[in-house]
Amino acid sequence: MKNPSLHPALKLMLIGLVFMASSAAFAQNDSAKVARYYEDALKRFELRDYPGAIIQLKNSLQADPNQLSVHLLLGKALMANSEVALAEVEFTEAIRLGVNRAEVVVPLAEAMVAQGKQVAMFADVRLNPAGLPDRVRQKLLLVRASASSDIGDARGAMKAVEDARAINPSDVGSWLAEVPLRVRARQFKEAMAVVDQALKLEPNSGQAFYQKASILHVQGQIKAALAGYERSLQADDKNIDARLARAGILLDLNRTKDAQAEVDNLLRQAPNDPRGTYLRAQLADRAGDVSLAKESMKKVTELLDPVPIDFMRYRVQLLMLNGLAHFDLKELEKAKPYLEMAGRQLPNSPVTKLLAQIAMTEGNPVRASELLEIYLKSQPGDGQALMMLASAQMALGRYPKASSLLQDALQARDQPEFRTALGVSLMRGGKYGSATSELERAYKADPKQIYAGLALVDLYLRAGQLTNAMQIADTLAKANPKNPSILVVQASARLRARDFAGARSGFEAALRLDDKLLPAKLGLAKVEVAARTFDAADRRLSEVLKEDERNVDVLFELATLYEAWGKNDRAFAFLERAVSASSRSQTRANYAMVAWQLRKGEPAAALSAASVLLSKLPDDVEALLVYAQTQQANNDLAGAKSTLTNASRVAAYDVRILERIARAQLDAKDLPGAAYSLDKALSDSPNDLAAMALMSTVELMQGDSAKAERRARQVVSAYPKAAIGYGLLADVATARGQTAAAIEGLRRAHDIEKSQATLLRLFKALATQDGGRSAIELALAWLKTRPGDAEVQKALGDAYARTGDFAAARRSYEAAISLRPNDAEALNNLANVLIHQKDRGAVAMAERALAQDNRNAGIVDTVGWAYYNAGDKDRALQLLRDARLRNPDNPDVRYHLAVVLAQTGRQSEAREELDAALKFTRFSNAQNARTLLATLR
After folding, report:
1. Which end of the chain is more exposed for a tag (fewer CB within 10 A), N or C?
2. Burial of 756: CB neighbours in 10 Å, binned 0-12, 13-18, 19+
3. Using the 8-state DSSP alphabet, how is residue 242 labeled?
């Protein structure tokens, strides 16, 4: 008899009963074991043994997969062990099993943020702060603040922090969460105030000490930062971030033994932390252990390469580490995506320099320049970046650009070699005063900075400081007696000092060391030109030219010789030959030819020379700017506008170059062109302060005050700590005739930036109000603490003079002159005051002003008027005629001339001058002019 078969449905039911019985039996027999797993895991979690806790929790779930508390703790342990994707799975399972949302929202949000899911986190309805208990809502808001900051929503981040703080202002968390937001915005003062508040609330907070140290660190206050990290570790020796930062500083300070101990400690705590592994590689490299360095770098990449890129998207430190590791391993293609992503998150971080270096290696100086320009906007003192940018710009032939961007190189890091580079770049940009200051500091700090010394000699010679030039040149030559190039510099200094014998001796000494040294041969010719022994110079240069008849430098010196000799035809012929001999890459003679023609008053020839230059450099911005200048000299404004438009096109998106072009377009009266160039600049650099400000000015010049105002308010919003935005708003208000609003804007600007410039703008506006009393009070308050400000002293004198208080005006002008004895404007104004006071010293004072600026019509007028009041009508008439010819549109000058003409019997001529003057309805002597004219009818 066959066994009866079970119905399939019944069979399934029985199997279910069997498993239910088994589960029940297990639950009954092993519940204590499950509880022991959980309790042991909890202890391990509290002791930060996260791997051990994870193992025990997984053991517990094998016994019973529906334990909600185990899923929740496992998620937290996985989070602590940096296994964030798995942590999110566990938190999601806990929610499925019915955990209260308040128990899981914060760690779930943190898990999503750690994976780069910031946007998804905001969209997840489970993570809405509404309806949560205050304590939980506060923590969730702080996570959201961090996520907002990650995605570039600074306003949203700050709003979340403020909402969290409103819940519990005494909780230290919201204060600490604000610190990285402030640091990211480079608001270091505000960041420090916030962290100080956190320490008031929790005086022994290791995290607060760490944040404070990090603020100091990013500002370059290394010693203070180091002490801060040490204080943080005293409060919490498990703070890996503080230990990493401390190790990094010790490494930078070359305290390798201390750094090694710190890294060893760190790797004992976290053996697979790629940051510690990277530092180990750096230490090995310092120690010359190439094998260990490479092995450590390789481990960094092995730890990070498998990590999904979304996980690291907002974990900038990990992106940078993996990029740096690949970079050091010379795996540039692998390094690029990590560094580029890091660069997008922190565009002003040092990682930008690596991207620029990669771009240069790939032969792309344009990209390198773009990266470094962005970086240097926030890190102007990074000498290494500056040197890299200079190299990139030189590769593009943009020498002025390279020089201008090096201007602020050493504000953050003072190293002699960097200061030398800054000084040289400033010198090439024609900023000789600033260049001299920087090079002096570099040379004083390190006399071995030969290039700084050589550049200083050149600058001193330019400034006529022969003693200083000779002193440094002699020091350099003494230290380097076998260096012919230095001997040439020394000889050149002696030449400028008109020590012809010494210069000749120096150049000859250089030639004994190197008989083919062309600069020494040219130097000897310059000695002969300076000594006006032109025949000897001619013979020497002609002899040198025989060696190479197309040597551009020799031809150029021959042109210089013949111009000095007064033989302009021959000078021009040799300049033409220099132009002809110049290769496509040699453009000095071309630029000189344009300058020659402009100097000689031959704009058409200058335009032709500029055309040749432009044919060599058709897409060079500098050449286009020169060409546009010659077009303007030929009254071809339409052509200049077209050329500048082309310059704007070839400048790509270089904001500084585009700004220069826009200013040239304003000179050419091309407002639409200037607006176009600035709009292009702002499309790539929308928050560039200088470009935004100039665009607001252009919009106002175009008559669109509404647009100018919007732009000005954008400047204020983007740069609330900068005065310029409020100054622009004042310009708009002035254009609209809104005097009160203009003054308010200028007050705001001056409150933000207590500078002479902001004060004088406010002073000028106030001078038109309440009889100038407010302006005078403002200036007096300023001078109370800054009595050495000559410009404000002059402005105060002007204000007193306008009110008729000539005694006070005299005191102010005299104070200004005591500070700047050769200030033509102050001397002139004081002379006018003395005229009003009928002081006999007026003539002498006016003559002093004239000696400083004999082409200034206003000063010539003052001297003439002083002589008239002193009774010398003949001298007065001579000078006042001169002034009138220089500036016929000045009604006061014409009135003064009319007075003297009338006094000397020239009534008809006097009437003509008065009629011309009175066409100007408002001027200081208008009523006097009418009265005098009535007597002459």
Report:
1. N
2. middle
3. H
Is the separation of the CB atoms in 277 and 295 below 8 Å?
Answer: no
User: Domains (ranges, CATH) in the chain?
Assistant: 31-99 (1.25.40.10), 687-751 (1.25.40.10)
Other CB atoms within 10 Å distance of the CB of residue 203: 10
Distance CA 81, CA 51 (A): 7
908 to each of 37, 880, 905, 911, 935, how far by Cα in Å?
117, 17, 9, 5, 12
Regarding pTM above 0.85, the answer is no
pLDDT band (50, 70, 90) for residue 704: very high
Q: Is 834 helix (H, G, I), strand (E, B) or coil?
A: helix
Q: Are 121 and 84 in contact (CB under 8 A)?
A: no
Q: DSSP readout, 786-802?
A: -TT-HHHHHHHHHHHHH
Residue 654, helix vs strand vs coil: coil
Report d(CA 518, CA 524) in Å as an integer.
Answer: 10
pLDDT of residue 878: 87
What residue type is 629 in one-letter code?
A: Q
Is the distance from CB of 442 to CB of 419 less than 8 angstroms?
yes
Q: Cβ contacts of residue 512 below 8 Å, gap of 6+?
A: none
The DSSP code sequence of 704-727 is: -HHHHHHHHHHHHHH-TT-SHHHH
How many angstroms from the chain centroid is the CA of residue 142? 32
Reduced to 3 states (helix: H, G, I; strand: E, B; else coil), residue 810 is helix
Question: Is-contact 510 532, C-beta < 8 A?
Answer: no
Read off the amino acid at residue 339: L
Query: In 10 A of CB 151, how many CB atoms?
Result: 15
User: What is residue 28's predicted lDDT score, i.e. its pLDDT?
Assistant: 38
Per-position DSSP letters for 595-644, written without gaps between them? HHHHHTT-HHHHHHHHHHHHHHSTT-HHHHHHHHHHHHHTT-HHHHHHHH
Three-state DSSP class for residue 775: helix
> How high is the pLDDT of residue 254?
83
The pair of structure tokens assigned to 274 is 């790629």
Q: Where are the alpha helices (DSSP H) in 480-602?
A: 484-496, 500-513, 518-530, 534-547, 552-564, 568-581, 588-599
Which residue's entry shows tokens 């300058």?
Answer: 595
Q: What ranges in 305-415 are assigned the alpha helix state H?
A: 309-312, 316-328, 332-345, 351-361, 365-378, 383-395, 399-405
Residue 156, both tokens: 């949203």
* pLDDT at residue number 905: 87
d(CA 266, CA 238): 9
* pLDDT tens track for 348-397: 667 778 788 888 877 788 888 788 777 767 766 666 776 777 667 655 65
DSSP 98: T
CA distances from 12 to 3, 21, 623, 806 (A): 18, 14, 90, 114
Tens of pLDDT, residues 175-219:
888 888 888 778 889 989 988 998 899 998 888 888 888 888 888
Smallest CA-to-CA distance from 213 within 187, 181, 246, 184 is with 246
- Mean predicted confidence (pLDDT) in 544-565: 87
Q: Cα–Cα distance between 430 and 542 in angstroms, integer?
A: 32
Is 126 in contact with 91 (CB distance < 8 Å)? no
Listed residue (634, 586, 627) closest to 609, CA to CA: 627
Helix (H, G, I), strand (E, B) or coil at 737: coil
Which tens digits make up the pLDDT trace of 71-114? 888 989 998 887 888 888 988 888 887 777 888 899 999 888 88
User: Given this model, what pLDDT does residue 393 score?
Assistant: 66
Contact assessment for residue 374 and residue 348, using Cβ atoms and an 8 Å cutoff: yes
Helix (H), strand (E) at residue 116: none
Q: How far apart are CA 143 and CA 83, in angstroms?
A: 18
Please answer whether residues 746 and 727 qualify as being in contact, where contact means their C-beta atoms are separated by less than 8 angstroms.
Answer: yes
